[in-house]
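Dear colleague,

Following up on Tuesday's group meeting, I ran the structure prediction for the two-component complex that the binding team flagged. I've pasted the input sequences exactly as they went in, so you can double-check that nothing got truncated or mislabelled along the way. The structure tokens for the whole assembly follow below. Feel free to forward this to whoever is handling the docking comparison.

Inputs:
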Amino acid sequence: MKALKLFLPALFPSWRFFDVIAPSPRIDLALIGHPEAECSVWRECRPRPTRIRLRDIPRRLFWNAAWNETLYLATCAERLLQNPTDHSSREIRRRVRADVLGDAGDRAVQPYFRFRLVFVSRHDGRLRRDVAFVSPAYRCIDPLDRWA
Amino acid sequence: MGLTDTIRLTEILLSIALIQQSLEHVFGLPDERLHYAVRLGLSLLLLLGIQPQWVCVALFVNALFVINRFQGPYNGGSDLLSSLLIFCLGLAHWMPSPQWQEYVFGYLALQVVFSYFKSGWAKVVHRDWRTGRALRDVFAFSAYPVSEATRGWAARPGALWAMSWGVILFELLFPLALLSQMAVLAGLAVAFGFHIANFVLFGFNRFVWVWLAAFPSVVWLQARIVPAW
């Protein structure tokens, strides 16, 4: 029944693309040595490239998986703020964890990470960044993560 | 183009769009790969025209699993239109008469027309869109620009004002495409260019394929309501 309820907007879409430009989420992550450690160094998760090469554009028309996943992460961040559920949090942390392990390769990695949601908006003509959510500490390697 | 040909062309274009989406999940998280592997197999059957009426039912069930997996659309509007296309194709196959099939495809085509018109209306009623400010914000701080170089468009207010009005006028005037065969072809050509621009600037590649799959229904509806003189 829940799936059918989620399907209804597809049958009667509202089609209101980009009507209001809402505060936009960024996901930062920090690696830490133990669960209670303070996070002093945050870095942006999946920063966008400086530029896209012209010759890469046709390929991205067929294969743009990483970018589409990044857009989905932004959706999850918005959902987490508007209607907090474990699903949104889990979707973000599993993908952040995969990024951390992917970046580390064979190198040793700190055992824990946190992520935070920073919302960028325009206020009095200037851009401002507000930290809206900081996650608990999660293990970088979690055997349960595969299906959790 | 008759309704039977329109349905078949929609099946072919939709299956290409679904195959493209499914392949992008090949390296996704393990619990999403299964759903998209199923979708990939069903899309190949649809492409080949094998038992499309049953394949569409299976794709509908698969769409329910996918939407439940992500607790909503994974890729916003492109997922919504994919689901609507799957639903309407499936429904059209199981309708008792051609007349009911026409109602179903008429609804689909009108939703495609609304996808432009309602977006244009939602923009034009906002002052920030009329002044170009909203599009400046899209480039300045939204999550969508594909690169830092693309963000640089935020520093071109004159160009963004013109782009804003270009988008608003295109979207609001799109229903006029139903007036004649020439108009519908021209309108869809502009719409395709619009989706390509959105892809280049914001990386919305799935929208290109899915909206293309919906175009035959608009061509059919135009010919159905305004037959060639």
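The first strand of chain A starts at residue 24 and ends at 32.

Cheers,
M.
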